[in-house]
User: Which sequence fits this backbone?
C-alpha cells in the first residue's frame, strides 16, 4: 500500500525522518509559510493550493520534486512536494504550506532556519489523481494510551476514527486518523484544525 504522507507528528509523539541523498545541492536558509489567504487559489503549477497538504513553493526546483525540510531549531522534519513558485520575500529559500509549517513548529514564529534535502528517487504518493481513500491524521503518538485518549475525544463528533500502529526504525507510533473521501476532506480538515489538531491529509 502506498502512503501519501510520510510525517508522523503530534503532542506526546515524535517525528521520524526518511533517509536522504546528501546531494551537493542541499541547502540551508530561512523558511516561511503561507496559509488561509491563498487557500483555494491556483498555484504556479496550476494546482489548487490546499493549505492542509504538505506542499511548498521554491524558486527553482522542478514541480513535483520532494524535499525533506528540517527545522534546525527543534529537529522536526517534514517531506513536502514542490508545486508553487516563491518565496517572494528576499532572504528566504522556501515557502511552506500551513500543514508543513505546523508539523515543523513554525506557524507561531512565522519563519525558521531550515535545511532542505532533495529526495533522490523518491516516488511520492500514489493516487496523485486525487482519488481513493482519504484520511485526516490528527496525531501520531509513541504512547498507545495517548492515541486512544484522542480517539475517545473524537468519537462522539466524528465517524471513522481509527488508531493504527506503525513500526519504524525509531520505534512504534500510534496514528489517530479519521476516514473520509476526497469531496469532504478539505472541510473535515478545517473542522479538525479549528479544534486545535495538527491535521495532515493522507491519501492512500
Assistant:
Amino acid at each position: 500500500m502506498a502512503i501519501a504522507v510520510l510525517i508522523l507528528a503530534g503532542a506526546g509523539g515524535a517525528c521520524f525522518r526518511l533517509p536522504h541523498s546528501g546531494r551537493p545541492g542541499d541547502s540551508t536558509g530561512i523558511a516561511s509559510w503561507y496559509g488561509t489567504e491563498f487557500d483555494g487559489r491556483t498555484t504556479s503549477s496550476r494546482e489548487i493550493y490546499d493549505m492542509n497538504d504538505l506542499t511548498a513553493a521554491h524558486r527553482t526546483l522542478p514541480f513535483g520534486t520532494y524535499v525533506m525540510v528540517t527545522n534546525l531549531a527543534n529537529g522536526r522534519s517534514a517531506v513536502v512536494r514542490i508545486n508553487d513558485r516563491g518565496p517572494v520575500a528576499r532572504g528566504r529559500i522556501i515557502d511552506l504550506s500551513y500543514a508543513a509549517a505546523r508539523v515543523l513548529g513554525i506557524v507561531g514564529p512565522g519563519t525558521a532556519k531550515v535545511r532542505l534535502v532533495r529526495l533522490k528517487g523518491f516516488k511520492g504518493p500514489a493516487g496523485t489523481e486525487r482519488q481513493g481513500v482519504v484520511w485526516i491524521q490528527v496525531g501520531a503518538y509513541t504512547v498507545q494510551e495517548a492515541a486512544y485518549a484522542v480517539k475517545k475525544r473524537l468519537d462522539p463528533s466524528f465517524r471513522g476514527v481509527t488508531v493504527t500502529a506503525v513500526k519504524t526504525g525509531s520505534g512504534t507510533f500510534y496514528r489517530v486518523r479519521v476516514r473520509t473521501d476526497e469531496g469532504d476532506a478539505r472541510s473535515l480538515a478545517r473542522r479538525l484544525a479549528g479544534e486545535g489538531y495538527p491535521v495532515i491529509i493522507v491519501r492512500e
User: Anything to note?
Assistant: The longest strand covers residues 171-180.
